[in-house]
Amino acid sequence: MSMAGRMPEPYGGGSGANLADILERVLDKGIVIAGDIRINLLDIELLTIKLRLIVASVDKAKEMGIDWWETDPALSSRARHSELARENAELRERLERMELDGGQRAELRGQEKEAP
């Protein structure tokens, strides 16, 4: 029997393995879907929405230089901890400055009282 007379496999037959293969390839290589939506009225741009979707494995994304989830406090406990540490350090600096300013003011008041 020749190849031309052979019927193709029905859709869905063995698709589980094919879907897994496709998903593995997409995650390994990555895929980018991009689109822009613009709303104009009489040649005046009212709204522009830029959509970008990247589907890739974490390793592939890092390889491409994409790692924003590591610094997003909502997604990373390490980022949340570093943000809290930074905020704590800033507050300690402000408190120290306020205490120094208050001490200098008290010192100036003491000098004013001593002056004839």
Textual characterization of the structure:
The chain is an alpha+beta fold and 116 residues long. It is built from 3 helices and 2 strands; from the N terminus they run αββαα. It has helices at 15-29, 58-63, 77-114, and strands spanning 31-41, 44-55. It has a two-stranded antiparallel ribbon. It is elongated, with a radius of gyration of 31 Å. The N and C termini lie far apart (120 Å). The relative contact order is 0.07. The mean pLDDT is 78.
Q: Helix-strand pattern, N to C? A: HEEHH
The largest sheet has its strands arranged as: 1-2
Class from helix and strand fractions: alpha+beta
Mean pLDDT: 78
* Terminal CA distance: 120 Å
Unreliable residue runs = none
Report the sheet with the most strands, covering strand number, pairing sense and barrel closure.
Answer: 2 strands, antiparallel
In angstroms, what is the radius of gyration? 31 Å
Strand content: 15-25%
Strand-helix topology:
Elements: H1 15-29, E1 31-41, E2 44-55, H2 58-63, H3 77-114
Antiparallel strand pairs: 1-2
In short:
By secondary structure, the chain is α+β, with helices and mostly antiparallel strands.
Q: What would the keywords be for this entry?
A:
single chain; 116 residues; alpha+beta; two-stranded antiparallel ribbon; 20% strand
